[in-house]
Design a protein that fits this description.
Layout lengths: L2 H4 L7 E8 L3 H12 L4 E4 L16 E2 L4 H5 L5 H13 L5 H22 L3 E3 L19 E4 L2 E2 L27 H8 L5 H20 L5 E2 L1 H15 L4 E2 L3 E8 L2 E9 L2 E13 L8 H7 L17 H8 L12 E10 L5 E5 L10 E4 L13 H12 L7 E6 H7 L12 H6 L3 E3 L2 H7 L4 H17 L11 H5 L19 E13 L10 E3 L5 E7 L17 H19 L37
Helix pairs in contact: 2-8, 2-17, 4-5, 5-17, 6-7, 14-15
The chain binds flavin-adenine dinucleotide.
């Protein structure tokens, strides 16, 4: 029922052109572009920080045919990306969504670079995840955000969500994947050593004034840079604001009702409301309802992503996309307790699984997957194997040499003291493989046989069971200096170790059905005027598949661009407004026209 049906049309407490819900990559991109387009824009965030899961992420964006590729003389990538996405997603994805993504992704990047100084650089070598499909690239599509200096945000730096503590060094220093790889070599390389010294000096100075390092990289750099663009353009960001309902007038969404700063306000959105609440990975009930069994108990996503933006839309007549087998994108994660009692969810993304000298086994002590596949495919394999034998949790098994050289989960390379991890129960140890197997409740005979086969394969370089190390994606995360196969090494030097991993959704792929303009649709595909979705609130344009690093944020930002383009397109007043100022200089705000809550009509529009 709509407010219009319940009460005479009430006055608006304030009017905007575009109102965005959620300050992650999707929402901040939408709000920033809307502001650049000259739209009066409001960004509503329900927590007290910007960034959402984006601020915890690696910040990679997967955009085929991107400007960085073109600068390097690579053209025509859209055609092979189309082939790849169609082969990968099949009929689970709508071809028009893929077309929209391919066409708009590069435009979005060009636009943000030109108008908001949001820039990325190429990952040198980042093959797509599913090399078995035609059109998969060897690199170039994933882009990494440039570092950002958090100090330029002044006091607003405190508003930037923090990365996962376990993915920072020394309790607050961020490093890129490339820097981490260099730092491991700092005892052997002067260049790496100098890098370490520079990073440490900067971090030391930072800690005199800030709670964490201010040299931001990865997803934190992306979130902070988008936020800085919003501040620079004077876009109001309302924190701790709870949106109660969307206002539906004449079959179109014309605004919303929000509680903010002790007031209940009825806000008009002349061009549209854009939902970017990050899906529902943190909602235990929705995980139970939509995710496969056994249901994931943990997630590395932020606590704000509980699907209430989806509820707002569903109550306004929207529908979800087609429910699939996963409905989530996956990380295998190990779990432990932090000193403060909170739960640490450590995603095993690329640092350990593909390195030589590790096997992943189920309760029978048997391998069930090529350990080097993408995190999403690894978890899918856990669920497949679970149908036959218990594989959740699965065990990552290695020996002393591996642990020292490559680390395992939370345990970094060259960690001298393992006792704290063992005492916590995070790291399991056995002087023999049989001991280890009994400790982790795995069949000893199975594990011994598996490791024996692994050691034979390590000598020949051929994984006779799962073909580990045959694809360029596997090898990119292996150890290039290891021969004959960079992903297979012997497990032979006691003691032996194991860490348990469980499926954890990094995000959800089941979201609101939209069309190629990011308009939220009703069950039969008619768009709801004035309502848009992007990021994990939008149903995956790739049918829930994970084509390569950055596929989530790449989609989020691209469909944010398309949403704004459609929303403000009809009412476009002028050419983009020139970038006003260096970071953090606030543009003057129009005087507030907010009125006391007594003027807000009661009743729900749900
Ligand atoms: C460790 C890690 C690494 C990752 N690395 C990558 C990567 O490199 N590349 C990639 O593509 N993906 C990556 N992902 C996944 C990616 O981070 C997310 O899929 C993506 O950030 C989602 O973006 P979003 O804008 O949809 O949501 P988010 O970034 O989660 O933002 C949603 C925001 O909306 C807010 N919100 C929720 N409900 C409301 C409401 N009702 N009103 C107002 N605000 C609301 C939330 O509080 C939150 O701030 C990673 C994930 C993790 C956990």
């Amino acid at each position: 029922m709509s407010i219009a049906a319940e009460a005479p049309r009430a006055a608006w407490d304030d009017e905007y052109d575009v109102i965005v819900l959620g300050a992650g990559a999707g929402g901040m991109t939408a709000a920033l572009i809307a502001a650049i387009e000259g739209a009066r824009t409001l960004l509503i965030e329900k927590t007290s920080r910007i960034g959402g899961t984006t601020a915890r992420s690696s910040g990679t964006v997967w955009i085929p045919d991107n400007p960085e590729q073109r600068r390097r003389g690579i053209s025509g990538d859209a055609a092979s990306a189309r082939t790849y996405l169609q082969a990968l997603a099949g009929d689970r994805a709508d071809a028009s969504m893929i077309e929209a993504f391919l066409a708009a992704g590069p435009l979005m990047l060009d636009y943000l670079e030109q108008h908001a100084h949001v820039r990325f650089r190429c990952y040198e070598h980042a093959p797509d995840y599913r090399q078995e499909f035609a059109g998969a690239a060897q690199g170039g599509r994933p882009l990494e955000p440039l570092p950002f200096d958090g100090r330029t945000l002044g006091k607003d730096f405190e508003r930037v969500g923090t990365p996962l503590p376990e993915l920072m060094l020394l309790g607050g220093m961020m490093v890129t994947r490339g820097e981490a790889a260099q730092l491991v070599r700092s005892t052997h390389s002067l260049k790496a050593c100098m890098l370490g010294v520079r990073l440490l000096l900067r971090y030391g100075v930072d800690r005199l004034r800030f709670r964490r390092g201010t040299r931001l990289v990865l997803g934190n750099a992306l979130a902070a840079r988008l936020y800085s663009g919003l501040l620079g353009r004077g876009v109001p960001v309302w924190f701790d604001a709870v949106t109660e309902a969307l206002v539906d007038e004449d079959d179109a969404i014309s605004g919303l009702i929000v509680e903010h700063g002790g007031q209940r306000l009825r806000l008009r959105a002349r061009c549209g409301v854009i939902l970017a609440g990050g899906g529902f990975p943190s909602n235990a009930l929705m995980r139970e309802r939509y995710l496969p069994q056994p249901v994931a108990q943990y997630t590395p996503a932020t606590e704000g992503c509980v699907g209430d933006t989806l509820d707002l839309a569903l109550d306004a007549g929207a529908t979800l996309g087609t429910v699939g087998a996963d409905n989530a994108l996956w990380f295998p994660s190990s779990i432990t307790r932090r000193a403060d009692g909170s739960t640490a969810v450590y995603p095993h993304i690329v640092l350990d699984r593909a390195k030589p000298g590790l096997v992943a086994v189920n309760r029978a002590g048997k391998r069930f997957v090529n350990e080097a596949v993408s995190y999403h495919e690894f978890v899918r394999a856990m669920y497949r194997s679970q149908r036959v034998v218990q594989t959740i949790p699965a065990l990552l098994v290695c020996d002393r040499r591996f642990l020292w050289k490559y680390g395992l989960g939370l345990i970094r390379p060259m960690t001298p003291r393992l006792a704290p991890y063992i005492d916590q129960g995070y790291l399991k140890i056995g002087e023999t493989l049989e001991d280890l197997a009994r400790t982790v409740d795995v069949d000893p005979g199975g594990l011994v046989a598996t490791v024996a086969q692994n050691n034979r394969d390590a000598a020949t370089g051929v994984d006779t069971e799962f073909g580990k190390g045959t694809s360029s994606y596997d090898r990119a995360n292996g150890d290039a200096s290891h021969r004959p196969n960079p992903c297979i090494g012997p497990i032979s030097e006691p003691p032996f170790y194991a860490v348990a991993v469980v499926p954890t959704p990094l995000g959800t792929s089941l979201g609101l059905l939209t069309n190629a303009a990011a308009q939220v649709c009703r069950a039969h595909g008619q768009p709801i005027r004035g309502l848009y979705a992007c990021g994990n609130d939008m149903h995956s344009a790739f049918g829930g598949e994970y084509p390569g690093a950055g596929a989530q944020i790449g989609q989020a930002m691209t469909f944010a661009y398309l949403a704004v383009k459609d929303a403000v397109g009809a009412q476009q007043r002028s050419a983009p407004v020139a970038d006003p100022a260096p970071v953090n200089r606030r543009a003057p705000q129009p005087p507030s026209r907010l009125v006391p809550t007594s003027r807000v009509p009661s009743g729900s529009v749900r």
